[in-house]
Amino acid sequence: MPVNETTPDLGLELPHVVNSGEHDVERVRNALGRIDTLLSAALDVEWLISLTAPSGDAEDGAGIESFVLGFTVEGIDVSMHCATAPTGSALVADVNGGGASILGNKLTIDAGETSTDTAATPPTVITSSLAAGTVVTLDVDQIGATTPGAGVKVRLRARRVVP
């Protein structure tokens, strides 16, 4: 007769066989599926990098922010948002890994918009992975001709590579 025991740290019921040769295959498959989902989610990483103070105006320049990756990542995705829309022209930023842009189309928030989600030309990532120890830098190439974008944040998402 199977006895169920809950694993405290994951909250999963894993069937154990006591005095029986039977296995509850479906329950084991479900538990393993949930474990796989939890492990996959644990490998997803995200950085939210502020390029300005919360309501501060964007300023153009290279290396506005930087950090060093502590582990290898792949499946990189980027987006940018701002609290105040740029006017007169777009707000444009770049993400560099090891000194070279990882983007084909740079992060662009069109004039009057507040996100790259609505950009006429969405960003494209051309570098699919970055190694541990890579210095990641963020540049602001253009800020808006009339009113600069303000409260600018870049979101970088990736999946951690487990050696």
Task: List descriptors.
163 residues; 5-stranded antiparallel β-sheet; 1 helix; elongated
Q: What share of the residues lie within helices? A: 10-25%
Strand residue percentage: 35-45%
Largest sheet: 5 strands, antiparallel
Radius of gyration: 22 Å
Global shape: elongated
Tell me the span between the first and last alpha carbons: 40 Å
Number of helices: 1
Low-confidence stretches: 1-10, 17-21
Instruction: Please report the total strand number as a whole number.
Output: 11
Structural class label? mainly beta
Order of helices and strands: EEHEEEEEEEEE
The whole-number mean of residue pLDDT values reads 86
Please, what is the oligomeric state? single chain
Topology readout:
Blueprint: E1 2-7, E2 12-17, H1 25-43, E3 44-50, E4 61-68, E5 73-81, E6 91-97, E7 100-101, E8 107-109, E9 129-130, E10 135-143, E11 153-160
Antiparallel strand pairs: 1-2, 3-11, 4-10, 5-9, 5-11, 6-7, 6-8, 6-10
Task: Give your account of this protein's structure.
With 163 residues, this protein is mainly beta. The chain contains one helix and eleven strands. The protein has one helix spanning 25-43; strands at residues 2-7, 12-17, 44-50, 61-68, 73-81, 91-97, 100-101, 107-109, 129-130, 135-143, 153-160. Strands 4, 6, 7, 8 and 10 form a five-stranded antiparallel β-sheet that branches. The two termini are 40 Å apart. Residues 1-10 and 17-21 have low confidence and may be disordered.
Give the gist of this structure.
This protein has 163 residues and is mainly beta. Helices cover 12% and strands 41% of the residues. The chain has one helix at 25-43, and strands at residues 2-7, 12-17, 44-50, 61-68, 73-81, 91-97, 100-101, 107-109, 129-130, 135-143, 153-160.
